[in-house]
Target: Alcohol dehydrogenase
Amino acid sequence: MKAYQVEEPGKPLVCNEVETPNPQGKEVLVKTISCGVCHSDVHIHEGAFNLGGGNKLELPLERPYTLGHEVFGEVIACGDDATVEIGSKFVVYPWIGCGECELCKKGDEHLCNLAQNIGVQMPGGFGDHILVPDQKYLHEAGDIEPHLAGSYACSGLTAYSALKKGLPYSSDNKAIILGVGGVGMMGLQIAKSAFNVNPIVIDVDDEKLEIALSNGASKAFNSTKEESLMEILEYTEGGAMTLIDFVGSELSAGFGTNLLAKGGKYIIVGLYGGELKMPLPLIPIMERTIQGSYVGSPVDMEELMELVRANKIDPIPVEKRNASEAYQTLLDLKDGKIIGRAALMHD
Model:
């Protein structure tokens, strides 16, 4: 099989011929049809997350490693204990836990400290085949287009899980999405369909804001404009009850935390990096909640895919590229040149 692999963090990917896995027991071998490219892939490719202040969280991954956790593919082989039909096609849930720890047992497999995530610790969809440890991680996609389907395993799942944490939503002008790149745009679509809210959107890119407005955002603000902060506070009548930050940078957090009403929730999703700096007394005085949200649980995934199969979530723009363009796609995503998402298509 062919895989575009990271041999040295931050450097061009290398196309390698590697042995095709032979599934055993409950394992399932999936031939990759498409694989979405995520901002997390950019960080994993670089080998570290930016913690701010010149500090980095290094990722202890064995090289070479194969990126790609937004996989849609076809089952071509199974272990003896798997019963899934050969030739069937699925979206793959990639956040694989140990199954034995307290987190896994309570359903939060995505938070497992011994995770073997596809596209991180385990080879992912930048290769033309992936090995899935159990058929329970396979989700039918209905009639969704193949180039869009894989994005629900991370972009869609991440947005859905974060929006669940932001409940309840009382009105459109009390909910804000900060950052309408690929995940934020998916969040806008899911907010409308699953949570019956048309949120305010904030970004630094007028083109993205226009697209968000055309896709149902109730109002759009460019945070680079000096007057935006006061205009948002006025429009929200004193601040948002829920603000979901799909950027996760020092700039986005510095701007967004000033937009919360008393009792509001600030949910950080993006992994751009940096430090959160704010006056601590304002957190208890304003009764504000600051919470992280990381991908989503298996239950979240099943709930989301039920909406997907019912065609209740409007599609977002997804640019199709050949898998051979994987490295350039990482660069373009990092430089903000991709509107919506990009998906690598395997031959």
User: Anything to note?
Assistant: The chain has two domains: 2-154+296-345, 157-292.
